[in-house]
Amino acid sequence: VDALNNFVEERGLIGQITTPLYKSNTVLFDLISILSNKENDKITSAINTIKNTQFGKSEDGKKVVEHLSKMNEGEKITIEKLGKGVRAQVGIKSTGEVVYIKISQDIPESAIPGRLVHEGTHIINHEKGIPSSLDDEKIAFQNAYSVDKELKSPIQDMPSDEELEERYSDLNWLKKEEK
Length: 179
Hints:
By secondary structure, the protein is mostly helical. The protein has 8 helices and 3 strands, in the order H-H-H-H-E-E-E-H-H-H-H. Helix 2 crosses helix 5 (112-127) and helix 4 crosses helix 5 (112-127). The protein is globular. The N and C termini lie far apart (63 Å).
């Protein structure tokens, strides 16, 4: 009961659930539902925000929003603890199936739309036949930057070609093969 009290208090849910009900499994499931809906609300809000940006109104933007909406409905987008310096990740199987998008819980909520655009761009690039490459990263950063700039996000990151090559040195072999 103490652990549950702390859990509720840390998340500002005091007053939403009464103490005598803590012992009920139903309340625990309700509590988990409330928390997951809070994260889902952030993602849904971010997707709706993207829709209203210049990028969101573009052809590629509409495709990104469509993918993100479907993934969100399928609960394939989560906000969670990621590795140091990692803002977001997308998981795409070799078959092309998009498995997940993970957004770092350490970034400000106002930066979520840009991260979703970045990862969503990888999805549509994959569909267009653009392989994971420095060009793919550049397009993803450009799209995210346009959204971040328009929304005045605290994260406005548009690395130079040299910075991209340094950050994504594991993709350099792809660029060399293309030449």
